Fold this sequence. Notes:
Number of strands: 2
Low-confidence stretches: 194-200
Shape: globular
Number of helices: 10
Strand order of the largest sheet: 1-2
Strand content: under 5%
Helix content: 55-70%
Amino acid sequence: MLPTRQQAEVLLEEAEQQNPGPWGNHSRTTAFCAERIARACTDLDTGKAYILGLLHDIGRKFGVRHLGHVVDGYTYMMSLGYEEAAQVCLTHSFIDQTTDSYIGMFDTTKAELEIIQQTLKKIVINEYDRLIQLCDALAGAEGVLDIEKRMADVKRRYGYYPQEKWDYNLALLKHFEQKTGKNIYRVVESSPIPPTRISP
């Protein structure tokens, strides 16, 4: 189950009011990219892709956290009955179904980390999970970015970037280029300023 497009936009708007920051427009850019790429595929729903992109970082509503935002988003979406969005809140941050390659602080409680790790083991990764992983890597708050430049920026800020994650993201890019038969940057190029926030 998922919220409607309008409900998802309201959820993001409310979350930004609670914890303002560039993550809101990053989420909009992710949603924009997901919708455009899904439109170029034959087996993906554009509306679903947009909603999942919009909500993948919704856990940031609850404050400035690193790994914590993943579990916050998961539990929040589950509390609303949005299981598909909850899954993407988890899967967007991991290249496999472990926390081994996570970049950032492990700022969770032991119980929260257990929720993440045990839930990841049970999840069956699908094309929407992969799509949001790719779009998350393409999306900046200011618009669409070159994936390698964005990864290099993350490496600069955190001091490292696992090679396996770097390679995985490039493989995702290639996967969706093969799937769409198009250069992904061409698919998302018409965009650039993230969609405007909705009025309260």
